[in-house]
Please model this.
Amino acid sequence: MLTLFCRIFQFLFNIGARVLPWRKAIPVEGTGGVAKIPLLLRERGVKKPLVVTDPGLVKAGIAARVTGALEEAGVAFALFGDVEPNPSVNTVNAIFGLYTTERCDGFIAIGGGSSMDAAKAAAARVARPRRSVNQLGGLLRVCKRLPPFIAVPTTAGTGSETTIAALITDTATHHKYAIMDLSLIPLYAVLDPELTVGLSPAITAATGMDALTHAVEAYLCWTYNTGESIAFALDAVRIIFANLEKVYKNGADIDARAAMLRASYKAGFAFTRAGVGNVHAIAHTLGGLYNTPHGLANAVILPHVLEDYGEAVHRKLARLAEAAGLVPAGKGEDADKAKRFIETIYGMNERMGIPKGFDFIKDEDIDQMIKWADKESNPLYPVPVIYSRERFRAVIESVRIRN
Ligand SMILES: NC(=O)c1ccc[n+]([C@@H]2O[C@H](COP(=O)([O-])OP(=O)(O)OC[C@H]3O[C@@H](n4cnc5c(N)ncnc54)[C@H](O)[C@@H]3O)[C@@H](O)[C@H]2O)c1
Ligand SMILES: [Fe+2]
Model:
């Protein structure tokens, strides 16, 4: 009954989604991309952007590369440098407040998903000042053009530089939810690999597995995919398998860093069109409740969910295994190829120091996690297997490590 209801919803939603005016952030690729930002601002008539970033990036001097380029070009700007991981409603409101008092007219978000999402949500408030952040949560609650928005990702990554989403945590309840609206797709995505060379191996691994999860969940989508989103997901999987462990071992490999930024952007486009799935639905509950880094949560949960899906995903995982170059195309059983794909993900996790499970999930939180994950996934996400609450429980239990 649940499955039938979800599939009918998704079938109808798919018809509606196909007539929406989808676009991508315009990519500005390659080293030196940061130096082009003043020109992009001028093109869009922005006189005083608000630069939004996090304290780690201020300290590491990465934000200064952008603000330095602005100063050199004589562009006035204001700076908000206090975004926290899994950004909160309070932070979004503080950014919105600064934007208003400083009379800014555009955004530059520098950072991982946290900075980009906090800035996107604040930009949504600029477009809809009478609505609270919570009121903007959900699908198509903004429906109004945002101020010019330049995303400068420093992780690879969330893909937020080209997605419709901003993930925000309700300060009071710890509920992490998404604002999803086409207007949240940034205008430009500056993909400058120089900004990512200083990422630690641990963050490189976790954020890279987030991008892989986007590509895999998008590819497994039951109905919203288009030819382009399928091609982007396959390409992202291929690039990530070829480059993620390279950048984990050698962060200074600029070509591999550039490839990972491209993969993250492609995976971002794929999932924003085709949807994510049960991996993300569970991962978001861990981010909200325990502040678990988003990529780490996905990395751990992904192979468990793929295993749980079983036969339903063998054919598609076999194609992904071929795209990743793990098995030859053509000969061989899909079930074996799918198994190989899942085992390779477990292996990558292990080689990159990602644990098999989590020991901090509390018994008393599980019912709440199931409720949130169910609410996020069903009926919207076109997952290959619709999860009942019991199945969510079983998968959550499978990622727990008991001491
Ligand atoms: N909007 C979307 O479509 C979307 C998609 C997936 C995830 N997300 C959200 O994005 C957030 C996670 O983003 P994230 O994984 O990119 O991490 P993050 O933005 O939280 O950053 C993690 C840490 O990495 C540091 N860091 C980032 N770039 C660095 C660099 N180049 N060098 C050194 N340190 C650097 C930051 O200072 C921070 O401490 C979560 O809230 C998640 O839910 C959003
Ligand atoms: Fe993600």
